[in-house]
Structure prediction request, 253 residues.
Amino acid sequence: MGLGGGQYRLPVPLWLLLTCLQQGTGLERISYVPQLSSPTLAGTLTQSTFTLEQPRGQFSRLNISDLDTIWLVVAHSNATQNFAAPQRVEDIPVPADFSQRGYYLTLMANRLLYPGNQPGNQLRVLRVGNDTRCSPKTRGCNHPLPGPGPYRVKFLVMSDRGPVAETEWSSETRLQQAKALQAVPGPQSAGTVVIIAILSVLLAVLFTALLALLIYTCHDTCRSAPISGPEQSTCVRRYNTHHVTDPPAVGAS
Prediction:
């Protein structure tokens, strides 16, 4: 350290430290890339959610304490270059800011929830976009994702003094999309028309048979004379008695 040419020169280590702080390189980079959970797991990708493996044992650094919060940064794939780590908790973007900023923070945790040892065969995953009850204006809300993506995520560690460390960005993730039903072109379409025509004819024949049976039943049952008033009617079957004869008329010879 000394004076030369009227200028004050800083020691090289101190100059490098100040340069790093000015460029924002004081944030520790953790060489971990977030991964989707196993494809064999049902529901890994849906129309509004996706499932990540937990970053177990990735935050056992000396500069990370148990009190530091670990956030998941969710971003549009084309907005990762514009991401700036918030310096205060009050500056943390919420899902309602997603359309404007292109990213938000969710799934707040700490490193005690991501230990290195996994007990037994217990499944440890993180489902992004799984909370339909929280307000998108609430900090940390895990609101359903608004579209198919693509999305990229990373983990960010923050203390009460600001950001501490971050992981690498994940690869692109695209959600499932609903597919509209379309008629199958080619010979299968003609075959479908034939099947529909046959089923229509069979349905018409069945309906005609049921109608004829109903008419025949009513005609056979209701051949009777009314014996009651207009408020109530009934039917009685007529019959002839063969063993009874009429008495002879009076005065007959």
Remarks:
- Residues 68 and 219 are 88 Å apart (CA to CA).
